[in-house]
Amino acid sequence: MRSKIVGTGMCVPDRVVTNHDLAKRMDTSDEWIRQRTGIVERRWIEDGQSPADLAEGAALRALEAAGLEAGDIDCILLSTLSPQHDFPGTSFFLHERLGVGEIPCIDLRAQCSGFLYGLSFADAMICTGRFQRVLVLGCEVHSTGIEVTDRGRDLAVLFGDGAGAVILQANEDSDDTAGILEVRLHAEGRHAKRLWLEAPSSAHHPVRVTHEMIDDGRVFPQMQGKFVFKHAVTRMPEVLRETLSAASVKLEDVDLFLFHQANLRINEFVANQLEIPPARCMNNIQRYGNCSAASIPMLLDEAVREGRIQSGQLVSMTAFGSGFTWASALVRW
Ligand SMILES: CC(C)(COP(=O)(O)OP(=O)(O)OC[C@H]1O[C@@H](n2cnc3c(N)ncnc32)[C@H](O)[C@@H]1OP(=O)(O)O)[C@@H](O)C(=O)NCCC(=O)NCCS
What we know:
By secondary structure, this protein is of the alpha/beta class. The protein has helices at 19-23, 30-37, 51-66, 91-98, 114-127, 153-156, 211-215, 225-246, 264-273, 285-288, 295-305; strands at residues 2-11, 16-18, 41-43, 75-79, 105-108, 133-140, 162-171, 179-187, 195-196, 222-223, 256-259, 281-282, 314-321, 325-332. The protein has eleven helices and 14 strands.
């Protein structure tokens, strides 16, 4: 038994925020952001929009691409580090929107590697026969959780809002080679505080958040950028190689490489290390910034719709993020 992706979709808000827009609100510049990250603009939600709106848009497009209706799915797995509410998360609000009866849904927390974690768990559930079709999403709204000031500029310029989705379905046709060939997942909790959101925290007594924490900016994400960078450029090639080797596939046989969109420089570094020609990589961080768990499914959807992935081709997807987490998947289309 194997599972295969039968539809992809994405959704971003209409509001475009350029580097120049940010430079009006904090001490930064288009030149600094482009040089260090490759980002030119990102999308941010407007008042009245929610993560569930983006997730719904991505899910409906994926269903349409698969020629299916919401009633055809039997589980929802949504990865996010920015849930609509601490509990029950985002997937439950999406569940209501889609009108999918009483099927199970869950928010998965693996940050920027979240989509590949979700893909792996959905694949395993389908292969055991528990589910036939799983809606797997990555969905983030970062714009309401960053500090758009000089103090928060190191992170504020990086993140964007968006959602990406795939429909993963059982493939019982032995003549059809399409499917998830291999997924490898890793984590290293000892670096949890190198890229994290400290508060609100259920470990903080007697209340989860105080005025002092708000004033000190501890309610905004914090990152040790250089430390994260170094680990990303080490772990990504490592797990990519591990995954290809487990599937007995050579690097040169992969048709398209999709990397998590955290920083264009990280991806260029990884591609250089592995001697992957630019023509076999694709990036969209220039237009969307870092959308964490949503970045890879958004990129995958653009690749499919632009005709960059043809039936029978091999696609490699690799991510690194907070946790730390890192993961890679190899898919035959
Ligand atoms: C974030 C990142 C681009 C910053 O680049 P960097 O070269 O490490 O930059 P630094 O943080 O050392 O800052 C360099 C200088 O730019 C300044 N700076 C930081 N953010 C800035 C901004 N938005 N605009 C202008 N200047 C900025 C710093 O204050 C520092 O100034 P100083 O030299 O006077 O102290 C880089 O560290 C990175 O990409 N890290 C990994 C990010 C990542 O992958 N995150 C998510 C994983 S999912």
